[in-house]
Amino acid sequence: MSKSYSNMNIKEQIAHDCGGTQLIDDVNHNMRRFFRCWLDGSYNGEGHYKMNCDFIKKHHNNHRAMRRFVINEFTNFIALEYECSHGHAQSCIVSAISKENLERLNDLLIEDAKDLVEDYIQEQKEESE
Questions:
Q1: Is the pLDDT score of 90 beyond 80?
Q2: pTM given for the model
Q3: What one-character-per-residue DSSP string does 22-48 give?
Q4: Are 35 and 75 in contact (CB under 8 A)?
Q5: Distance of CA 14 to the CA centre of its chain
Q6: How would residue 127 be classed by pLDDT, with cut points 50, 70 and 90?
Q7: Which of 104, 71, 8 is nearest to 79 (CA)?
């Protein structure tokens, strides 16, 4: 018999909510939707939203910087959701998702982040053509 969700520890809850391929298979998975809310300032206010937009506008063509950004922001989001430290959240995420799926998730989270400033990115493309 499996544990009820309320009897799971944080690591088990994160594995339940984020493990496997569910985050990469479903763009509307609740964790992906809530992460987009995290980025848009719904959790931490307009200042966080503006900081995120400024960073993404500046670095949207730099995959390494964007990867670092989404890993940090997603980990901060998970840490808040599960009321644990950044380090513990990161450890739980890494153990819940295979390396291959984690890299795919990072790419998808980058696309989710870029959606915040899609109009700006489109304007930049048009100006450079």
A1: yes
A2: 0.92
A3: HHHH-TT-HHHHHHHHHHTTTTT-HHH
A4: no
A5: 14
A6: confident
A7: 71
